[in-house]
Amino acid sequence: MSVSTSNGAARSDPERFWPGLLSALRLSPATAYVLRTLLSMGIAFYAALWLQLGTPASAAVTVMIVANPSRGGIVSKGVWRIFGTVTGAVAAVLIMAAFGQTPMLFIAAFGFWLGLCTFASSMFRHFRAYAAVLSGYTVALIAAGAVSAPDHVLAFALSRLSVVTLGVVVSTAVTMIFQPSVTTDGMRARARAAVRGVARLLLSRADGTPMDDPAFIAERTRLAGEIERLDEGVEFSGVEATDVNRHAASLRRGLAALYAALLSVSIAGHSLNLLATTAEPPPRPEPSPDGAEIKEESGPPAPVTAEPPPEDIVDRVRGLLQEIAQYDPQDGRSPLAMAEKIAATAAVLTHLQGSVRSLDQMNTLARIHQELEQLYAAMAPFAAWRAGRKPYHQGRQLVAFKDYETALRNGARSFLAVVLGGCFGYFTGWDMAPTLMIILAASCALLSGAPSAAAASIQFAKGITLSTVLAGIWEFLILPHLTGYALLALSLLPVLAVAVYYTTVPRYALLSLGFVIFFITQLNLTNRMSYDVVAFANSAIAFVLGAWVTVLVFRIILPPNPMRDASYLVRRMRRAAERLIARGGGRHGQRDWLGWLVTYNQAMQRLFMRLQVDPVLRSRSIGDCGALLIIAQEALRLRSLFPALDLPPVEREVVRGALAQLSRLRQPRRAAAGAEAASAKLLDLYEAGGARRPGLLHAASGFRTIAAMMPQAERLLALECPLPEGA
Apex CA 194: angle with CA 238 and CA 633, to 5°? Predict the structure, then answer.
């Protein structure tokens, strides 16, 4: 017996040892990201030295630039970086070949190319925007080495492409080997967590939490940012999984529905609270004198046993939301069962709406039903994807939002900054003028897409200045005493480890990124080092001057104006809603609501970014945008319902006029008055009829909702410009 026990213990020790060792070595995501990035930088730099490439440090810089916590992000950014480098290299060769002997024309041509690329980057999303930016300032990176030898510009272009490709390949390989989890796993977990978060907010609001509660506002803002980033997750997952590409449009429509659910969570939660406090069972149809029930003008008689009374549906909705709120984001099971529960509860609400007789109760039920529909529309595409079915949401090709005004300003700013910097170098004859142009070009192009470019430029400039100081210390006090790659790597490891870690902290991300990139660049590490204090000081002046001139550029030359941008975005959103309402509805005019919502959400996200300068206004605008969404959705529903109402001439004209006013949202008070009048007419017609016509009550409820939401929409529209009196 003792032998048997001993053998069993001996067999179980290894079984306990390996899981324990793996658990001990399990690192936090941030630590693992830092270690992968440092390993990739070390391998890429060593390989560039071994291959004797012209600028080996650029391979390490490339690793830092394409670094991303997700595997799909690494691959996506790497592919677009190579594409941008190739495009920029071709442009550099052509510009140098055409204007290499005429400096002013070269400066103008380079400025035009950078401005064009910056304009394009403002029109694209995700890493396509970065590829456009890179295409612009790659010309400066190549031209800086080819200024003194224009005939060798092709060699410089190929050298640049070589180090960039090396950095991308090494970074991708290291990530694939040392990051076991794929991007799709993380995206699924984050999507489930976002749905859970919306359900929790909805329950919180239903429990009486005021909409101006700081914790409520903070959580809603956090969830808005997380849903925005999930769109990026779909992009990255498509790089790794072909099935994600097939479902990408459907998944994006689902995320748009989830975003709409978040924006209207305050209204829906309040409706659930209101229904719970005022609920009464719908009245049974009264029997006629002969004992028969009163029949409707058309259709079967109303059932004697009514649908579940409102207090029952409140409990059911609350139970469903609590189940969603407790849904484990790491649970790998298909969300199909949860989606089916949401659909079943929404179906009960639909039947219940056909039996209520109160306009207020109809309004509250409609808001809760709409919220459940949006939650279902968010979960269904993920359920279909996980079940291997065809994409759930179908529709036209999605259209990205194009911010033309901001793109033109960003492109013009980059053009002017580079031309002014180039003219300064030309007239002063400064030999570091190409370096100055590189800093100006890269900074103006990269920072144009920041929510607050002026503040971002200061952080970036601080990082470049700090990198210059430490690069001088390392190059002249530490590196001369080192021999061999191992000691070099060990000397740089502590500095780079701290800097790479702080790139994961949003508050210090830009400062740390600027530091890492330009610290490695200014060390100018090669196989054969040369230590020239005067040359380093001359270069350091160009780096620091370029960094702080960029700050002046963003404050003086076409400076960003968040409120002006907000006005432009609100105008675009209003016009988009007006066109949707005017053209939507009818058998042949029905629009792809979720497809339109994807584009509309991108405009809203840009608006919220611009309003970060005023947190109170930003928080208020989130709810106001939700009100405008509800107005647009109700208007579409009313347009589709209008032909089936069979209204008398007077009521028909009132409803037609109210719908026409909704396509002129620049006059919100008139639209609200028209909606209120249409609601009153339809309600009178409903109450005057001897039989129930639920369609009339549905339409009256829709117009009443629009009238109630219009004051919130008016606050949003006031950002466009002060509304005319009596609008």
Answer: 90
Q: What is the pLDDT of residue 727?
A: 56
Structure tokens at 376: 């279902």
H or E stretch covering 715:
helix 694-717
Query: Hey, what amino acid is at 114?
Result: L
DSSP state letter for 644: G
Element spanning 685, H or E: helix 668-688
**Residue 371 is encoded by which pair of tokens?**
């919220």
Say if residue 65's pLDDT is above 80: yes
Say how many C-beta atoms besides its own lie within 10 A of residue 261's C-beta: 27
Name the CA radius of gyration of the chain, rounded: 31
Instruction: Give, in degrees to the nearest 5, the angle at Cα 33 between 32 and 36.
Output: 85
Tokens 């990269």 found at: 446
Q: What is the DSSP letter of 151?
A: G
Q: What angle do CA 468, 473, 476 make, to 5 degrees?
A: 115
Q: Cβ(263)–Cβ(622) under 8 Å?
A: yes
Dihedral, 228, 232, 234, 235 alpha carbons, nearest 10: 150
Q: How many helices (H) and strands (E) does the chain have?
A: 26, 0
User: DSSP for 474-538?
Assistant: IIIIIGGG--SHHHHHHHHHHHHHHHHHHTTSGGGHHHHHHHHHHHHHHHT--SS----HHHHHH
How far is it, in rounded angstroms, from Cα 149 to Cα 652?
A: 79
State residue 170's pLDDT score. Answer: 94
Q: Are 434 and 485 in contact (CB under 8 A)?
A: no
Please tell me the distance from the alpha carbon of residue 18 to that of residue 5, in angstroms, as a whole number.
21
pLDDT digit string, tens, across residues 270-304: 888 887 776 544 444 443 333 333 233 333 333 33
Separation between Cα atoms, residue 285 and residue 288, nearest integer Å = 9
Q: What is the pLDDT of residues 337-347, one digit of tens each?
A: 888 889 898 88
Q: Of 295-309, 522-536, 561-575, where does the model show the most confidence?
A: 561-575
How many Cβ atoms from other residues are within 10 Å of residue 480's Cβ?
10
Residue 622 CA, chain-centre distance (Å), reads: 15
In this structure, are residues 65 and 500 in contact, taking their beta carbons and an 8 Å threshold?
no
What lies within 8 Å, CB to CB, of 316 at 6+ separation is 308, 345, 348
- Taking CA atoms, 589 is separated from 63, 204, 582, 638, in Å, by 50, 38, 9, 13
User: Greater confidence, 108 or 586?
Assistant: 108
